[in-house]
Each structure stands twice: as structure tokens, then as C-alpha cells.
Write a structure and sequence with these properties.
This protein has three domains: 98 residues; 196 residues, Histidine kinase-like ATPase, C-terminal domain (Heat Shock Protein 90); 123 residues, Response regulator (Rossmann fold, 3-Layer(aba) Sandwich), CATH 3.40.50. The chain is globular and about 90 Å long. It contains 14 helices and twelve strands. The longest helix is centred in the first third of the chain and has 63 residues. 48% of the residues lie in helices and 19% in strands. By secondary structure, it is α/β, with parallel strands linked by helices. Helix 10 links the parallel strand 8 and strand 9.
Length: 440
């Protein structure tokens, strides 16, 4: 009996040892994966900091100099820096998605605004390549939805950018339709006789976004590796089209996270069609309206130079990178705005206790005290003259920069780096006291 007891004890110890060893190995793998992700994120941040400085300086050259040769060189710099920035973002986003560290951030968003912002990004290339853009957006789609608008926008933009890249002549089409989803999950086709009462009762819809092109299309072999990371089509290799080879893999993973899917239909030499389908909550049932008119108005505004003048406005810009501060000062040089600068969160907080500002522009990632920590302390200082001031977050984290996240942290709004004059002026006009702003 004693021998049997010893045998059982030995068996338990051996089994426990194996289980402990496996657990320790899994823990080490998880720790190594976290270290790898943290390293990639840190490197991506450092690379984006330099890329943003290049893009910001490049905009100053394009703004201040008329020499054709210089502007041509500056244009080449911008194109290369934008491509490099996109590749860095792709690598970081893919790493986060693949490691399970990415999370959905749900917020209310206006669908027409999301679509217009996406078109704005590709509009210069559409004009340059003389491609037609045709849109067909159902005007009865609820105007406000709830979901992860950042990831949805990323998916649509990725597909639309590829459509423009691989299309040399013809047109790009964007079609958006929807179907109401019942409480039991059943999908009801939209009726032409949809009443205002039934529309208001919708709480969830199935959104379908189709992007088609008359480009080169894909072969059967290209289709088989379309969603494989680091794989590129023969057309991309032969035509030397820039990219990381991660775009469609990111689209697929994002949509899977959101409970959606993407389907592809393509014919070599004819064109391709990508269909995004996913369910979204209805935040406001009022119809989206005439999207074509909204887009036309937005594009018309985009072609105009935006000028900005302000009177008696004082702003504090906080950033640990000197060149970013210099760019902000230069961008606001002719607006009448006085810009004070601080190179750390601690210095920025000190200046807020001494001077009253109309607005604070605060970089997110800074050593020691970052932007979120600075804002948190500022809001808690009741005697600080800027405790309730308008605070705008600045960040170069292309894949993490989400307005909802910054608002939850206490910021009023968010500007992506590199900060360009048009977006900066619009942000100032939106939040500064109306009596101090004279938009021209």
C-alpha cells in the first residue's frame, strides 16, 4: 500500500511538473510577444515622429516658396514620406491585430462624413489620373450609426486606395446600401414604401459598401494570396506599386473583429469589386439624404484656399519635439495668433498656471508626463486659469488615434500629425470664441 502511495505521489509530481513547465512556457511566450509588440510600437512611434517632421517641414516649403523646381522636389518628398508612413502604420496595426491586443472602440459617427473623408484622401490621385468617381448612396440610410468608425474607415480607405492604384483609366464606383435587422437577427429587404415611423423604429442595420473599379483586375493566383500577409500580386510587383502587402489582411482582420466580412469579385483585364458587409447600431434614424450633393459641396470647399485670421488669441503648444513646435509656430505666423510653446508636460502645466490661453494643443506621447497625464492634472487644478480651457490632442499614432478615446480622456478634440494648415485653421475656427475669429 505504501509503495502504491509513493508511486501515486511520484506520478502527481511528474504530471504537475509537466503542467507547470507548459504553463511557464506559455507565460514566457506571452511575455516575449508583449515585449515584441512594445518594441515594434516604440520603434513605430520614433519613425512616425521623424516622418511627421518631414511632412510638416515639406508643407512649409510648399506654402512659402513658388519656385517650380523646389515645389517639384517637395512634392516628391511628400509622396515618399506618405507611403513610408502608411507602411509603418500597416506593420504596427497588423502586429496588434495578430497578437490579439487590438480592441474595438465604439462611438457614434455620421456615415456621410466618414465617406467624404475617405474620398478626400484619394481625390488628388483621382484628379491626377483623370479617373471618374461615381457614387450611389441610399439616401434613406440612417444618418448616425454606432460602431468602430476608425476601423471601418480604415477598411474602406484601404480598398479605395487600392482601386485607384490599380486603375489607369475609367472609373471608380462607391455604392452603399442597407437592410434593417430585426430583434431576432432577421434581415428585411428595404421597401420603397419605408415609412418614417418604421424607419424611426430601426435599431440595427446591415450595411453594405461596394467599391468597384475598371482597373487591371486579378488573376486566379492573385486572388488566392490576396488576404495573405506580406504577399503581393504580380501586378504590384511588375508595376512597382508601393505598399506593405498587409493592407487586405488588415481589412479582413478588422472586419472579423467587427463581425463583418469582405467579398471579392475580380476579372483580369476588366476590374475588381470589393463588398464590405457588417451590422451597425442605429444612433439616429433620420435619413442620410442626398450624399452626392454633400460630397460635391465638400470637394468644392477642398479646392479653395482656407485663410484664417484671429484677434487677441493666445495658444499654448506642448510637444517634446522642437521641430513640431517650430512647424506650429510657422503655420500660425500670419494669422495674428500668439503661440507660446512648452517642450514637456511639466513645463506646459507650469505655463498654464501663469497665463490664460484660448486653447491648448497638447502632444499625446511625451516622456515623463505625457499629454493625457498633463490634461488630467490640469483639469483637477481648480485655481488654474486654464482648468476648463479647450484642449486639443496632437498625435502621430495613425492606428491608435481615435477621437472617442481622446474625448474619454478629457480632450475636446484631436488633430493628427503632421498638422496641416487647413485642418489646424478649421479646428481653431470651430473652438475659438467667435468674436476673436475672422475667417476669410
Amino acid at each position: 500500500m505504501e509503495d502504491r502511495s509513493k508511486w501515486a505521489e511520484g506520478l502527481w509530481q511528474r504530471t504537475a511538473g509537466k503542467l507547470f513547465g507548459r504553463g511557464r512556457e506559455k507565460a514566457k511566450q506571452a511575455e516575449d510577444a508583449k515585449k515584441q509588440l512594445d518594441f515594434i510600437a516604440a520603434m513605430a512611434h520614433e519613425m512616425r515622429t521623424q516622418i511627421n517632421a518631414i511632412l510638416g517641414t515639406d508643407e512649409l516649403i510648399l506654402r512659402d516658396y513658388e519656385d517650380p523646381a523646389l515645389r517639384k522636389y517637395a512634392g516628391t518628398i511628400r509622396t515618399s514620406a506618405v507611403v513610408l508612413s502608411s507602411m509603418v502604420n500597416d506593420v504596427l496595426d497588423y502586429t496588434k491585430l495578430n497578437s490579439g491586443k487590438a480592441n474595438l472602440v465604439l462611438s457614434e459617427y455620421r456615415l456621410s462624413t466618414l465617406l467624404i473623408e475617405v474620398v478626400n484622401v484619394v481625390w488628388p490621385d483621382l484628379i491626377k489620373k483623370e479617373l471618374k468617381l461615381k457614387t450611389e448612396v441610399d439616401g434613406m440610410i440612417p444618418s448616425m450609426l454606432r460602431g468602430d468608425s476608425f476601423r471601418l474607415k480604415q477598411c474602406v480607405l484601404n480598398i479605395l486606395t487600392n482601386a485607384v492604384k490599380y486603375t489607369e483609366r475609367g472609373e471608380i464606383r462607391i455604392k452603399v446600401t442597407y437592410e434593417p435587422v430585426g430583434e431576432n437577427g432577421s434581415v428585411t429587404p428595404v421597401s420603397d414604401t419605408l415609412t418614417a415611423k418604421s424607419a424611426a423604429a430601426m435599431s440595427r442595420i446591415r450595411l453594405k459598401i461596394t467599391i468597384s473599379d475598371t482597373g487591371v483586375g486579378m488573376t486566379g493566383e492573385d486572388l488566392t494570396k490576396l488576404f495573405s500577409p506580406f504577399e503581393r500580386s504580380e501586378q504590384a510587383i511588375r508595376k512597382q506599386i508601393e505598399g506593405s502587402g498587409l493592407g487586405m489582411s488588415i481589412v479582413q482582420k478588422n472586419l472579423e473583429m467587427m463581425g463583418g466580412k469582405v467579398e471579392v469579385h475580380s476579372e483580369y483585364g476588366v476590374g475588381s469589386s470589393f463588398v464590405i458587409t457588417l451590422e451597425q447600431e442605429v444612433a439616429e434614424a433620420s435619413p442620410l439624404g442626398d450624399f452626392e450633393k454633400q460630397l460635391e459641396s465638400a470637394l468644392d470647399l477642398k479646392t479653395k484656399d482656407i485663410h484664417f485670421k484671429a484677434h487677441g488669441v493666445r495658444i499654448l503648444a506642448v510637444d517634446d519635439t522642437e521641430i513640431n513646435l517650430n512647424i506650429l509656430v510657422r503655420l500660425l505666423r500670419d494669422t495674428g495668433v500668439t503661440v507660446d510653446t512648452a517642450s514637456s508636460g511639466e513645463e506646459g502645466l507650469k505655463k498654464t498656471r501663469e497665463t490664460t490661453y484660448d486653447m491648448l494643443l497638447i502632444d499625446h506621447l511625451m516622456p515623463k508626463m505625457d499629454g493625457v497625464e498633463m490634461l488630467k492634472e490640469l483639469r483637477c487644478e481648480d485655481k488654474n486659469p486654464n482648468s476648463k480651457a479647450i484642449c486639443i490632442a496632437l498625435s502621430g499614432n495613425g492606428v491608435e488615434s481615435d477621437l472617442a478615446e481622446y474625448r474619454r480622456a478629457g480632450f475636446d478634440d484631436y488633430l493628427a500629425k503632421p498638422v496641416v494648415s487647413a485642418k489646424l485653421y478649421l479646428m481653431l475656427a470651430k473652438y475659438l470664441p467667435k468674436e476673436k475669429v475672422d475667417p476669410q
